[in-house]
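3.2 Worked example (two chains)
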Amino acid sequence: MASESREAIHPRSGFSPSTFIFHSKRKPVPVPSVPHLDVTTFISSRRHSGTVALIDASSGHRLSFSELWRAVDVLSSALSSSHAISKGDVILLLSPNSIFFPIVSLAVMSLGAVLTTTNPLNTTQEISKQMADSHPVLAFTTRPLLPKLGSTSIPTVLLEESRISGEDSRVVSTIRDLISSDQGNMSLRREPVNLDDPATLLYSSGTTGASKGVVSTHRNLISMVQIILNRFKLEGDGEPETFICTVPMFHVYGLAAFATGLLGSGSTIVILSRFEMEEMMRAIRDYGATYLPLVPPILVAMLGVEKTLPLGSLRRILSGGAPLSREVIEGFRMKYPTVEILQGYGLTESTGIGASTDSAEESQRYGTAGLLSPNTEARIVDAETGKPLPVNQTGELWLRGPFVMRGYFKNPEATRLTLDSEGWLKTGDLCYIDDDGYLFIVDRLKELIKYKGYQVPPAELEALLLTHPEIKDVAVIPFPDKEAGQIPMAYVVRKASSGGLSATAVMEFVEKQVAPYKKVRRVAFVSDIPKNPSGKILRKDLIKLATSNSKL
C-alpha cells in the first residue's frame, strides 16, 4: 500500500484504477514489528485507567485487572511446570462464556501454545472430529460438558471451584487449584514466542461438509486487537467503557474482542454465560453498560417488545452476523433515539472485523457492512473470469491485511484455494463497494445458512442425510425466518424402497446427530434435485421454489 501514490487512489471510494485495489479510508493503526511478542504480553502491557476487568453477570463476582493478570501468570506457570505445556502444544477450551475463559485463553497463548475452542452446543461426535484433527494435549471444560469429550483419555482441567469424590479419571485438576497455586513467575524459562507463531486454531464451517481449522498467528490477533480498540476509540488513557458480552467467546469475534482485546483498553467486560433477555436487561441496568454486542435476532426481539426497555446508560449496540434491514434500524432509532447501532462484517479467516460502520452516520447507509477496516485492502473479483472489478460492480470479495490467517491446519489444498500467493483472502462472499467506499454484501458464494448468527454449512447436513437408508438424494437450503434470519430446509428424494419416510423422521434423524442450531427445521419431498451439468446443486432454484410455495 505504501508504494502506491495516494494521488492514484480515489479519495471517495479508496479505489485505485491502476491496480483495481480498494484501500481503507480509515487511518492506519500501528502493528508491532518486534519479532518476539505474544498477544498476551501485548495486551497486558498497554496503559489504561480501568480498574475492573471482568464481572460475572449472574453472581456479580468481579475481577480487577491486577487479579486478572496475576491469575493469567500463575496459570501459565502452572501449565508449564505441572503439565509440561510448551510452545506449539494445542489446548482445547470447551466452555460457555465465563470469567475463566479469558484467563485460560491468555495463559495458553502466553506460552506459545495454540488455543482451539469449540461450541458447547456441538455434539460429542462433532467435538471428537475436531479433537481428532487438532490433537490437543490438554482440555479445559466444565463438569456438565465433560461427557462431550467422549471416550478420549485426554487430561482435563475443570473450570470449577473444586473436585468431587469419584471424579472422572481424566480430570487432573481444577482451574481454582491451578490459579491458587504458588508457581511464581516462570517467564524466563519459557521459549520465546514470535509474532508469526500460531496462536489460535478455530474451526470454520466449510462448503465441503468438513470443518477446517483456521490458524491465526499472534500478529493476526494483535492486528485485530488494534483495529477493535481503534473502532471503539479506546486507545490510551481514555474513559473505560462497560461491555455486555452476549456473543460467544469461542467465536473469533468473541475471542478477539471480549476474551482478549478489550481487556487491553481498561474496559469492563460483563459476562453472560448464556443469552436470556431478562438477564441481559438486568445486567445492562445493574452494571451501567455502555456497549451491547449482539446478533440481529436479539435486536429484532428487543424491537418487538411492546413496552420501551430500560436501557439505562447504554450508548451503542454492535450488531454482526448479518446486515440489518432499513426497517429494523429506523424502527430501533425511533424507539431508542439515544442508542447508536454499529454493524460489522468479518470471517474466522480474517480474525474478525474486515469492515464496519463506526458511527450512527455511517450506519445510515442502509444495508452496508461499512467501510474497510484500518490496514485493509480489498478487491472485487469476477467469480467466473477472475477479473478485478471497479466500484459498483458485484463480484467475490478478496481481503488483504495483517489480520489474514496463516492458512488452514494440515490442509494445503484448501489453503491454496482460499489464499493466493500475494496474500489475498478469497472470502466467498459476493459484494460490491460503492462510490463512497462502503461495502455491501449481495450473496454468499459459500452458501452458508445463517441461523441466529450461527453458520450452518448445507453440505454437512446433506452428507449426514445421505447416510439415511431411505434417502436417495438431498439438498439443504436457507429458508427465510423472521426470528432466526434463516432456517435449514431439506429437499429430500426418497429411495424407491422407502417405507413412506416422513418429514418428522427426517428432522429427528438430523436432530440426534448435530448441535441444536444445525437442526433441519423444514422438509419437502421431491422426485429429483435440480443440478447443473457438472452435478452442482442449483440451490437458487430450490430457494426460489421454497419461498414461492407457501404450501411446503
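3.2.1 Second chain
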Amino acid sequence: MIEDLRKGRFTLPAETGIDNEVKRIIEKWGADAIRNSDGTILSKELMDMAVKVYTTYLTVRNDQQWAYSHRDQLQMQYLMSKHNTAANEVLEIDLLDGYFNRQFEIDKDHDIKRYWEVIDRTSGELLDVNHWEFDCNTQKVVINNAKKWHRYTVSFLAYQVWDTTQMYNHLTNNWTTAPEMPYDAIHEETREHIFSYLDNWLKENPSVDVVRFTTFFYHFTIAYNDKAKEKFVDWFGYSASVSPKAMDEFEKVKGYRLRAEAFVDEGYYNSPFRVPSKEFLDWIDFVQGFVAENAKKCVDLCHSYGKEAMMFLGDNWIGTEPYGDYFGNIGLDSVVGSVGSGATLRLISDIPHVKYTEGRFLPYFFPDTFYEGGNPTKEAVENWVQARRAILRKPVERMGYGGYLSLALKFPEFVEKIEEITNEFREIHYKMEGTKAYTAKFKVAVLNAWGKLRSWQTNMVAHALWYKKIYSYVGVIECLSGMPVDVVFMSFEDIKKKGIPEDIGVIINAGDAGTAWSGDKYWVDDEVTGKLREWVHNGGGFIGIGEPTAYQHQGKYFQLSDILGVDREMGYTLSYTRHDKAQEETHFILQDQKSEIDFGEGMKYVYRVSDSTQILSMDNGDINLAVNEFGKGRAVYISGLPYTPENVRILLRALYWAAAKEEEMFTWYTSNSNTECAAYLQTGNVAIINNSDKVQETEVYRDKNSAVKLSLNPYEIKWICMEL
C-alpha cells in the first residue's frame, strides 16, 4: 500500500502520562488528530504536536461552582412513582421508592399542585389537587380519600443532582472524582453564563483545533434504581429537557399548557415504540427549536476563534435531532457518533448540513472489555466488518476510537489489528474517490409513525443494543444499511399530506402491533390505507415484517391482509377451517438459500387469506414467508428478519421481486450470500467483501450474462477494476 494510505482520517484517544506511547501509536495507526476522553486531559506536549487536537466540551457541567451556587437552575426530570394499591382510604406514596436517591432530589421549589399529578391508574382519573398533600419531611404524598383497591401513582418533578454520564462512569468505571450536577440552559442567567464561560475557555485554549461538544444541553433519559443499576434508559428520551420554566415557555410558544402526563405517559415516558402524541411532538419541536437557537451561539463562538465545532451524537444530544427541522440552523462543522452496527454507521454518515462525519468504533477502551482474559480484538473485527457494509454505501469521512489508550496498549494483538482496520478504511476512501456505489433504480421506503426524524433508528431501544423483543426488526434496518438500494424513511402523515413519491419502488412496514413502527391506529385511517392500496394495485411493492398493518378492526387484524395475502389469528376465527401448505417449487426469493432460514422471534398464528398467496416457508402450521400479487403490485410477508448474511440476501431478493425487477438484481451482484459487492462506476473500482470468518468462493456479476469467479479469505475486501 502506498504511503499516502497509511496516514489520515483517524482520531486517536490520548491521555497524559504515556506521551511516548501516544506518539508511537499516532505513527502506527496513522492518526492525524488526537482527542481527550471524558475524565482525561492532554499534556501541553501532546497538544503542541503537529496533529489536529479535539477537546471535549461539556456545556452544562463544566463549571461546578455555578451548579452548586444555582441549585434552583439544575436540570430536572419528570418521574412517576410506583403503582400503589389502596387498602384503605388513606394512602401514602413514597415518591423516590425504587429510584437512586443520589441521582434525584424531589423538587420542593415550585408549585407542587400546579406541576404534579396524582392519577388513579385503575380508572385513569386525575385526582383533584385538594384530595392529596405532600409531606416534605417524609417525602411522601398522602391521598386522603383513596378508593379501596384502586392503584395510584404520582407524577412529580425532581432535580438531577448527579450528571447522568458522570454517574455512569463512577458506577461502571470506578471514577472517584466529585459528583457533578447539570445546569439548565432554559434559565436566561445560566444560559448567558454558558456562553461567557465558553468564550473564556476558547481564549484560554489556543491549541484546541476542534471543540467536541458532548453534546449541548439535554441528556437522553436515564433513571437508575435504588440498587444503583439502570432502571429506565431511552436513547431518544426527552424526559431530562423538562422544567417548570420550560413548560411555561412552551405555553407561550404553542398556546396551550402541558400536563405532567404528557411526559410521564402512563409510565412509558414516550418511548419511541409509542405512537407519538401531538403534545409530545409539539414538545420535541419546541425543544429542538430552543436547542438549535442556542447551540448556534456556541458554534458561532467557536468559529469566531477559528476553531471547528463538532457535536457528539450521544449523551446530551437531545434537541439536536440530526434529521429534524432545525439541525441545519446550528451550523456545525461535523458530527461524531458511536458505531455499533451498520445501521448506526448510516445514522451518522447520512447526517446532512455538516462538512464531515466521524465514527467512533467499538470497542470502547474501557475496563469492561479490556481486562485480563478479555478479547477486544474479536469485538473490533466484528464491529468493523458489520459497519464496513454500510461504509461502502455511505461512508463516514473519519474514524476513531474512544476511552483510555493505556488500556488498549496492554493488548498487542489488538494494536496490530487496528492498524489493519485503519489502513483498510483509508483504502476504501481512496478507491471510492468520493463517488457513490451503484444502487437499484428504485428507492425503498421504511414506513412508520416517526418517518424521517428517526432515520436509521427504527425499532431501536438504546443505541445499537440487542433486545430479544426487537432483534427480528432491527435486523431489517441492519440488512438495508449495506444494500445497493437508496433508503428513505417515511411517516403515515407524509402519505396523508404528500402521497407516495414516484421514485419509491418498495415500502417496508416492520414492527409489533400497537407500536409506532407498525403504526397502530394509523391502519384504520382510510386516507392511509386507501392511498397504499391504490399505489400497490398500480404496481408498487409492499413488504410486511412481523405484525405489519396490524390493528383489530372490522374482522381483520392485518388491515392490508388483502395486499399481503396473510392475516394473524387472534382467536376470533378459530371456527374457520384452513388448509395452508407451503409450495414445493423454489421461488425467486429463495434461490440463494442454502440453509434453514432464521426468522428470529418470528410470529405465531399467521395464515393465508387468499388463494393467490404463495407460502414459501411454514413452521408448525405458521407462515413465516409468503408472497402475493395485488393488481399490478406485489407483496411479501416475513415473520421476522434478524441480521445475518443469508437474511440480507433474502431481503435483497424480496425487494427486487416486490418491485418486479428481478432481472435487474444481477447488476453488480455476488452469487455467495456471505459476500457482497459495491461498484463505483465513475472510478472503475469494485469492492468485493467477505462478511464471514471462512474462505468464500463467489461469482461477481456485472450483469446476468457476465461474471467472474473469486476466492476471498476470511473478512477480506478485494478490489477489482472494470472497464469504463
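3.3 Remarks
The chain has three domains: 3-63+173-231+250-257+275-432, 443-665, 669-721.
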